[in-house]
Design brief:
This protein has 78 residues and is of the alpha+beta class. The protein contains one helix and three strands, in the order H-E-E-E. 13% of the residues lie in helices and 26% in strands. It has a three-stranded antiparallel β-sheet, with helices on one face. The longest helix is centred in the first third of the chain and has 10 residues. The protein is elongated.
């Protein structure tokens, strides 16, 4: 995924006043939850083995934003 973000950033035109920024936020659920991709498990996940993160990269003016999320699926509502 990071290679894809880098490819998008490199494909954008470069100007003297171009701006860029990035951010990362922890999106790990606070309580036990059923995670997508673990259908064989019968109980909710109760421990955090590795935190889930969302990362964003914004480049250009007007900005082009690419968002990467550490999960298997995002509903239409989200």
């Amino acid at each position: 995924m990071r290679a894809w973000i880098l490819a998008v950033a490199l494909a954008l035109p470069v100007s003297g006043q171009q701006r860029a920024g990035s951010a990362q936020v922890d999106i790990t659920p606070q309580g036990p939850t059923r995670l997508s991709g673990y259908g064989s498990r019968r109980a909710e996940t109760a421990i955090v083995a590795q935190p889930l993160k969302a990362t964003a990269l914004a480049v250009g003016e007007p900005p082009v934003v690419v968002i990467a999320v550490d999960n298997c699926g995002v509903s239409a509502a989200v």
